[in-house]
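Listing S7. Sequence submitted for prediction.
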Amino acid sequence: MLVKGCQGKVIRVKSAGSRLFDEAFFVLRGDAADAGEGDMLAEANRILEENMLPPRRRASSPSARLLFFALGFAAASVAWLLLLLVLFV
């Protein structure tokens, strides 16, 4: 979508899959007025794709979190048991 501004031309690109941004605005250089709208949009999309963040890692599943909790609890219990054996034996 090409939008004319007060000082020049601005391209607004709506984001489809960004976690951070809904849309981006590009202010065109003075000598870019001769370029076609399709070329300008393609260049704006190219810049956006180059600067996208990598996808977020998925959070671990509830069963994996429960497993990690149980392993941590077991390790702490063994550590306390060894400490008590050292202190009282």
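Caption to Listing S7: primary sequence and predicted structure tokens for the chain studied. Helices lie at 37-50, 62-88. Residues 62-88 form the longest helix (27 residues).
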